[in-house]
Design brief:
about 170 residues, mainly alpha, two-stranded antiparallel ribbon, elongated
C-alpha cells in the first residue's frame, strides 16, 4: 500500500483513501502525490519464515528436554518406572498441546500447519526410534512409539487450531 503525508497534519494516508484517518480532511485529486511517498517496511515475508522456524526450534527444545528426563527413568526395570515414563510422556504431550495453543493464539493465520512445524523435529527423531525398534525386533515398542508420534501430531495441530479459534472468539466479543 502506497502512503503519502496528509497536507494538513502530516499523517501517513493511503493514496486511495477518501479522507485522512487522523484529521478527517477530505482528499481532493492531487492532494496526495506519489512524489513524496512515505517509506514502509513489509515484514510479512520475514514473518512467514520466522514463525515456523520459531515453532520448529521450540518443539525441538521441548523434545530435547523431554528426552533428557527419560534416560533417568529406566522403563524396563519395574512397573513403577514404567508408570513414571508414561507420566513423563503424558506431561510432554499436554505441554506440547499448551505450547501449540499459545502459538495458534499468537499467530492464528498459519493454521494447523504451524502445529506440524512444532512437532517436525520430534517426529523425525521418533522416526529414528521407530527404525531402531524395528531393527531390534521389539514390535511392542514400535507400536508405543508410533502411538506417541500420533499423539504428538494431534496435540500440535489441534492445539494450534484451538488457540486460533479462541483468539477469534475473544476478538468477536
Amino acid at each position: 500500500m502506497k502512503l503519502a503525508p496528509c497536507p494538513d497534519c502530516g499523517n501517513a494516508c493511503s493514496l486511495t483513501a477518501p479522507s485522512c484517518p487522523r484529521c478527517g480532511r477530505i482528499m481532493q485529486p492531487g492532494d496526495l502525490s506519489e512524489n513524496n511517498l512515505v517509506k514502509t517496511t513489509d515484514y510479512s515475508k520475514l514473518k512467514n519464515i520466522l514463525v515456523p522456524l520459531l515453532a520448529f526450534v521450540t518443539g525441538a527444545t521441548a523434545f530435547l528436554i523431554y528426552f533428557s528426563v527419560i534416560p533417568y527413568i529406566k522403563t524396563r526395570e519395574s512397573d513403577v518406572n514404567q508408570i513414571l515414563a508414561i507420566i513423563a510422556s503424558s506431561i510432554f504431550i499436554i505441554s506440547l498441546f499448551a505450547l501449540a495453543a499459545l502459538f495458534g493464539f499468537v499467530w492464528d493465520k498459519f493454521g494447523w500447519r504451524l502445529g506440524l512445524w512444532l512437532v517436525s523435529l520430534p517426529l523425525i527423531l521418533m522416526a529414528l526410534g521407530l527404525l531402531t525398534s524395528l531393527a531390534s525386533g521389539s514390535f511392542l515398542s514400535f507400536f508405543v512409539i508410533l502411538a506417541f508420534c500420533g499423539f504428538m501430531v494431534l496435540a500440535g495441530c489441534f492445539g494450534v487450531v484451538l488457540g486460533a479459534k479462541y483468539k477469534k472468539r475473544l476478538q468477536s466479543k
